[in-house]
Specification:
Layout (H helix, E strand, L loop, with lengths): L4 E4 L11 H6 L7 E3 L12 E4 L8 E4 L10 H11 L3 E4 L15 H14 L5 E6 L1 H12 L4 E7 L12 H10 L8 H12 L6 H8 L2 E4 L2 E4 L3 H6 L1 H5 L12 E6 L10 H7 L3 E6 L6 H4 L1 H12 L3
Parallel strand pairs: 1-11, 4-5, 4-6, 6-7, 7-10, 10-11
Antiparallel strand pairs: 2-3, 3-5, 8-9
């Protein structure tokens, strides 16, 4: 196993506070194809965006993390098309973004959703890139269907159980308790919601990220994420399914140097399940690597996808 704990240096790219860039990017008008369907038969037909490329080869598929959406990767996807020439897809996980809601949210279920979409789109192989929750979904699919994953990138997450110090339980609770009564302008709804978030979520950039999930419907505002399902299955999302097989293909575990989510304590689990994995760290980045050090993230992905 080539388990190399190296560091990708931050070469002058601007450091953004956590997810401010993602929150701003979500407002951009898409210039690509958008798809949305409804939930049925235990499989959730995922909402996805396609960024067309002219170079043949397996497409790059991006999976977001908890409370995220495919819009988080708009600028990343366009940059990957420019630099690799390949087609890029971004997906909304079940209970997130524009994808339907279901009571169950586990990694086998989410992996099944992605596999179903690949079958619909006649994708026989891909480069699968997932951040956090999306990384664990990507790992699950790679272990279940290794022939469908040419290369795997897990961004700031390992197959080990996640640390309990995450703020997700408190985020869920405060979001569930927010009250926005009656019709109101979007600016008012965001202001009132942020005021209520402030009691628990102290980081302004995290509040802005959570607020990307506040959507309007007939003048009323609601959360587009399925908070009840996420709350009921949070432990499943922090854990990882048990596997007794391994993924034989190339894998990259790309961590933030300032994040605790990939450490030397996780190396045995990575080596057991992903024996051909490398581990790299990006300096100046925390958990949201792609938002905080975008250029270094893109360099690492492109070097891994198309090694010289």
């Amino acid at each position: 196993m080539a388990l190399l704990a190296s560091h990708v240096c931050a070469g002058g790219s601007q450091t953004w506070g956590l997810l401010t860039r993602l929150a701003l990017g979500a407002a951009a008008r898409p210039s690509f194809l958008t798809h949305r369907k409804s939930c049925h038969d235990g499989i959730v037909p995922l909402s996805y965006d396609v960024y067309e490329g002219k170079v043949p080869g397996p497409p790059l598929v991006l999976l977001h993390g908890l409370f995220g959406s495919k819009s988080n990767f708009q600028s990343i996807a366009r940059a990957l098309v420019r630099r690799t020439g390949r087609k890029v897809l971004t997906l909304d996980a079940r209970n997130h973004g524009s994808s339907p809601h279901c009571d169950i949210i586990t990694y086998p279920a989410m992996s099944g959703d992605v596999l179903h979409l690949f079958q619909q789109l006649n994708i026989s192989s891909c480069v699968l890139i997932g951040h956090s929750m999306g990384g664990k979904t990507a790992m699950t699919l790679a272990l279940q269907e290794p022939h469908m994953v040419e290369r795997l990138v897990s961004v700031d997450i390992s197959p080990s159980p996640a640390v309990q110090q995450t703020g997700f339980p408190k985020y869920i609770k405060v979001m569930q308790n927010i009250r926005l009564e009656g019709k109101m302008p979007r600016s008012t709804a965001r202001r009132l919601a942020e005021e209520q978030l402030k009691t628990t979520v102290k980081e302004a950039s995290v509040r802005q990220f959570l607020l990307t999930n506040l959507v309007e419907e007939n003048g009323y505002f609601k959360w587009r994420v399925n908070l009840d399902a996420i709350s009921n299955h949070l432990q499943n999302l922090l854990d990882f399914p048990e596997f007794h097989c391994s993924y034989p293909g190339p894998a990259l575990f790309l961590g933030g140097a300032n994040s605790p989510y990939i450490s030397s304590e996780n190396y045995p689990d990575i080596e057991r399940l992903f024996p051909c994995a490398n581990v790299e760290y990006i300096q100046g980045a925390g958990h949201w690597v792609h938002a905080e050090q975008t250029q270094d993230f893109l360099n690492a992905i492109c070097n891994f996808v198309e090694p010289t």
